[in-house]
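S.,

Sequence below, as promised.
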Amino acid sequence: MDERTVRDIELDKVLEGVRKYSLSPEGREGISPSLFTDNPVAIEERAAVIDRYMALSEGEAPDPFPPVRDLFEYSERTHADFHGSDVRRIGLFLASYISMLRYIGEEENIHEEDRILSDDILSSLDTDGAVYDDHPRLRPLFKELERVRTERMRSASSFMHDNRDSIQQSEPMYRNERIVIPLRNDSKAVNSCYVSGSSSSGSTLFAEPFELVALNNEAVIARERIKAEKAKILHELSQRARGTIPFMKKMLERVIIFDFHHAFAVWAKRMKAHHPQRGEELSLIDAVHPLIGRNAVPVTVRLGKDIRAVVFSGANAGGKTVTMKTIALSAALNQISGYVTASELSVLPLYSAIYSDIGDGQSIQDAASTFSSHMKNIASIARRCDNASLVILDELGSGTDPEEGAALSSAILRYLSQHAGLTCITSHYSQVKSFAYSEENMMNASMEFDERSGLPTYRVLEGIPGDSHAVATAKRMGMPKEITDNASRSLMGGEESSARIIKALLSKERTLDRKITEQALKNREIEKLRAELSEKENKLHSLENELRRDGVAELSSYLRESRKTLENLISDIRTGKLTSEKIHKAKAFMKDVEEKKESEEKLIEEEDIPDDTPFNPGDEVLCGKASTPGKVLEVNGSNLVVSLENGLRMTIKRSMARHRRREEPRKASLSFSGSSRKASYTIDLRGLTLEEALQRMDDQMEAAILSGMGTFGIIHGFGDGILSRGIHDYLSKRREVKDYYFARPEDGGMGKTYVELN
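The prediction came back faster than expected:
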């Protein structure tokens, strides 16, 4: 990645913040801009591992790794033993590697010989690399040394007791790790001793009785044995450590990869970073520059896929450069780790390279002015960029004659819009803003400025150029009032400034937005009424059919009762029990059946139902508007003799019947079901049209009222204000709404609204 870009967008500082979570020196070095890639598979793989490690970061982290790369070079350069401290480093590295495998859930990849070697090294050597005195192999040697020392002290004490008159002091002395007896130089006891030295005055002799000489020699030999055994232990551990060096090289490669993902996982969790979506158009939502921290105002920038250049304008210190840096930094972090400090709803393209020109490149040594330095760098960018590059240029064309600077800026912007993927610039030139308006693949964007407070809000207004607000900025920076007042009078006396033009455009845009919103609401009311009428009509039709089906069911019941009566009459005729009373009853029954038949014929007799398909006996048909199922028994000219499914046989007009399709189901009874909608505590309406958003609001209000919810939040974003104004207008007309208000700045500010229900 280009070194200047790394410095300009402060990627090096952000990566340094990631590196502090590294667990190894080599892994820390591996977190670098060189990891930038436009390979989508590699980016997704990195993001997937970081996502998995983010879930693990709640637990205890693996132990830190000591540096070991220099040990690899030492092992290749010489066959000499490692120093004790180097052997201990190898033991610590193996222990940390084992803890890393446990941390990521790969205990099955732990080799027992590595664990044993690590335990042996760390239990044998102290922090300085010296063998512990309590090493099991040294215990018998130290025990023997202690025995000799005890015997030696006993012998020295006994000699001094026997020769009290000859000694110079009451305690024996240590010289060169040997016990000696201080004797007067005229003592006769000297004859039974070995004299190893004398005091500076010569009055005291340092003597070793012959018995003590042997014991001193034994003590020296015991100490030498301990030293030799320690050297032997260290040599053995060194040889074992040397044997694992080839495997440690592969381990280190794994550690560097792990350290990259682990460090980014911890960083992403603490910075509340997310993995953005990938797409052709840039849509950066609620992005925060990592170096600014929690006090930063989130930046939202949405660009259509046809936009190739953006001109940021507005007040000085209003956030133009920070916004550009945030865009470039987000793209760089995404193509290094797959994570950015922005909403997961953000969409970022992949860029082949990122180029920048930010800051003052003036150099006394190179005799380069600010303007010439910028031109040199921009010329280099123009030669190197391709149609997948991201280019950001701060204060393009500044530092020279304004007219020439504006012309050159427009020419550079045109060239880069044709040869780079996306170009973002900041400019105060009105000509450049106008030029961006005239090009289809370019867009103006400004940093919002609060006229009442005289302060920038750091919000991006897409499609609108911004005024520099130089006088207001000078006032805010403490410029003397006399100067700012004179400047204001000069502006008022001249031609209408671009600021007033922009204000007029904004005012007209807001008026148009309000009218559009009002018309959309009216259209929505009309559509709602139309839908309600259609729904009522469908319900009435369904209810009518239901009543007809109920009538058919009633007729079926009547027929069953009639059959019983008829069977009883037939039985009376057969048995000869027919009386005048029963004959009268039979006539009444026949008349009743005939009237019922005529009533049923009128029930299903409706307007003609066109069906040109010929009818044949056995065809299944649907009769009348109620679509009563039946079967054709006979075809008699323009009439059909049908048997209804309830058993009734009747003659109907051909036009009153239609064939029943195989796939056509029987009509079910009218039924009602409750709404399956569920109320949400927060609904996100960003990206929807106003009509779609209001439809979602209808659903949310209904569900919230049914579920007894008292309050909920609406994320509508800042955008151009159409969505937020339309939603507020909608809420003001709902009787169920008790109150509604924007969220606090830290909770979304004017991009989010809270609703309280009655």
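Residues 496-579 form one domain.

Coffee later?
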